[in-house]
Structures are given as structure tokens and as C-alpha cells.
Design goal:
single chain, alpha/beta, three-stranded parallel β-sheet, 6 strands
């Protein structure tokens, strides 16, 4: 057996292909038109690149039609009566901070709306920015209170915060 070294290494058969020499006469197999066919823009140099120019209409027709829109309005956090029934004891005060502490809502910034999903079996004092009609009825029926609190709307949040800081 012979030793393998740089002097006797060979590429495996078929791994090195010869480059096609276009436009080097008819004997080469790629003479005359050099594999570009007959006349026309595609036969010329640089002709294939400039063929994809289209108007705006055909471009717009290729874009997928996504229906509707995503509203930028801030939505209130929602919580169902069934969740409140499980999380709180009889006569407890339920407000946005208590809900955030128990992990029932993510944020306290956007406000709170109570919905009538599930059953409320105990009287609770619930403070929220909004109630559904059926939720309000269910809370009163269970012997609790539904207190609606209004959130102050501020046009320029930065301006309002700077005024608060200055007054302190």
C-alpha cells in the first residue's frame, strides 16, 4: 500500500467539470449564437436584466390582500365574574391594583372592564372603569356593589407629568 501525500492526491472522477467556452467557434459546440438562440433583446448583452420592468398595477396585484385593519385605540383590560368569584373572598374590595396583584390582568394603565362570564356567588365591592349590563345585574343580584370610576383623559401625557412634578 502506498503512502498518501500531497504528491499523489487526485480529485475523484467527475468532480472537476470543464468550463463551457462560449463563442469560440462552431467546433466548440457553443459557437454562432453562443447558446442565446436567435435575435431579440434576450440575445443581446445585458438584455435579460432589463426585462422585468412593470407598471405599478401589476406590482399591486401581486401583493396579498390583507383585509381589515388593526386599531390603535387602547383597549381596556377585561376580567370575567367567574374569575373574580374564584380569586376573592366575600365582601372584599376588587379594584385594578388588586387584580394586578393577583395576576388576573397584565396592565393597570389602560383601565378595566368587568364582563359577565361565569357566575358570581358572593357579594363583592367591584371598582372598574366599565361594566357590561349583565355583569352589573349579576353583581347587584349577588349582593355586591358595582362602582364605576372614570379615568381622567389627558391630551398631552408628557405635559401633564411635568406639571405634576413641578407642583410637588
Amino acid at each position: 500500500m502506498t503512502m498518501i501525500g500531497l504528491h499523489n492526491l487526485q480529485a475523484s472522477k467527475g468532480s472537476n467539470k470543464r468550463k463551457i467556452r462560449r463563442g469560440r467557434g462552431n467546433a466548440s459546440g457553443k459557437g454562432n449564437y453562443s447558446g442565446r438562440g436567435g435575435k431579440g433583446q434576450r440575445a443581446r448583452s445585458g438584455g435579460k436584466a432589463g426585462l422585468n420592468l412593470m407598471g405599478i398595477k401589476s406590482y399591486l396585484q401581486r401583493i396579498p390582500k390583507n383585509k381589515g385593519f388593526n386599531s390603535l385605540a387602547i383597549r381596556k383590560e377585561t376580567v370575567n365574574l367567574g374569575e373574580l368569584d374564584l380569586a376573592f373572598k366575600t365582601g372584599e374590595l376588587v379594584d385594578i391594583k388588586a387584580l394586578a396583584h393577583k395576576g388576573l390582568i397584565r396592565s393597570t394603565k389602560s383601565g378595566l372592564k368587568v364582563l359577565a362570564g361565569g357566575k358570581l356567588t358572593k357579594p363583592l365591592i367591584i371598582q372598574a372603569n366599565a361594566f357590561s349590563e349583565s355583569a352589573k345585574e349579576a353583581i347587584i343580584k349577588a349582593g355586591g356593589k358595582a362602582e364605576e370610576i372614570k379615568k381622567e383623559k389627558v391630551k398631552n401625557q408628557k405635559y401633564a407629568l411635568s406639571r405634576v412634578k413641578k407642583s410637588k
